């Protein structure tokens, strides 16, 4: 289905059609656009490339409703070619206030071929995706971009009418060649999907962007489980007993296997960095008992595990969170992932317990736009103007 037609701006009668993605014929063209577009801060030497493992829909297909659009140039010097893509999904999330939910849309994976930029193709892809969002009843649309990606920020806050909203950070930790020793002060308990859902709805149900269909997230094949950290020696009486009388401090988090959905690759690293990374791995293999912080090979396609649903309470909650991340590191090592990542809000109280290497992470900017008036609960008001809460729930289906 063609949803838009615009002048390609390249002369020679070229026009660009914006239409729904056709998996049967568009995959090679989409992969070519993805390879041509770097992901990460613009202007730097290091670039992060994404390998979608032959599934262009991998980052949205697990959402309740999703759509992918492509921009196709017709009549140009290269004939017919895919020159742009965008993905979107719609879900219902908490708006940061007790029992208030709103239907929101998330826009991601916007790419335009370098040869076709500055012709309005990206803006047109966004506008047509927003039309679908409105058809699906979404009241708000939001998008995440790197804070340092000035062209992307200008596109959304200028041409597309989005407002700067939240400033979370992606925290990344490498997976070493050895296991990390379990915490001596915390015990980690694995919860089944039913227990995890109950805990999340009771304790994190009002956190901003908490998905109403958390049960679908937890039961997804890519979800590796939910883990609860409590002070060592705490008697475990089941999740109902925990909720009735929680310990003085605790933390909870779930793991998501991004490794089986997509792979990443760091390109542009100097040879000296590569050699240094190899040296740390060799030393770690030779003497694993030393616990050398070895750097995994990130210069060829690698997978990651994502930690989501981080929450907790009590004066030692950050220490409990650190125990969870040590456990997550060891799960990732056994699963063949080379990094563990999470994304937390700017005011997240458990952030101090998240081990990470600053050089590997990124600072995000979430921008939001109200799509239409008259939607949702009147008590909410205009969410796009609400002050940030202490925490934010990052849906792993769209990371």
| Name of the level-1 CATH class of the largest domain | Alpha Beta
Q: What's the N-to-C terminus distance?
A: 28 Å
Outline: globular
Q: Estimate percent helicity.
A: 10-25%
Low-confidence stretches: 40-44
What order do the SSEs take from the amino end to the carboxyl end, as H and E?
A: EEHEEEEHEHEEEHHEHEEHEHEE
**What is the CATH architecture descriptor of the largest domain?**
3-Layer(aba) Sandwich
InterPro entries: Acyl_CoA_acyltransferase, GNAT_dom, Plant_NAT
GO molecular function, one term: acyltransferase activity, transferring groups other than amino-acyl groups
Protein name: N-acetyltransferase domain-containing protein
Domain N-acetyltransferase: 16-181
Structure commentary:
It is a single chain. The chain has 399 residues and is of the alpha+beta class. Helix content is 23%, strand content 32%. It folds into two domains: 4-167 and 365-385, Gcn5-related N-acetyltransferase (GNAT) (Aminopeptidase); 171-262 and 298-363, Aminopeptidase (3-Layer(aba) Sandwich). It has helices at residues 27-36, 121-135, 150-159, 193-203, 214-218, 238-244, 271-286, 317-335; strands spanning 2-7, 15-20, 47-51, 65-76, 79-94, 101-112, 140-146, 163-166, 169-174, 186-191, 223-231, 250-257, 263-267, 304-313, 339-344, 362-370. Strands 1, 2, 4, 5, 6, 7, 8, 9, 10, 11, 12, 14, 15 and 16 form a 14-stranded mixed beta sheet that branches. Strands 3-13 form a two-stranded antiparallel ribbon. Helix 4 (193-203) packs parallel to helix 6 (238-244). The chain is globular. The protein starts with a strand and ends in a 29-residue tail after the last strand. Residues 40-44 have low confidence and may be disordered.
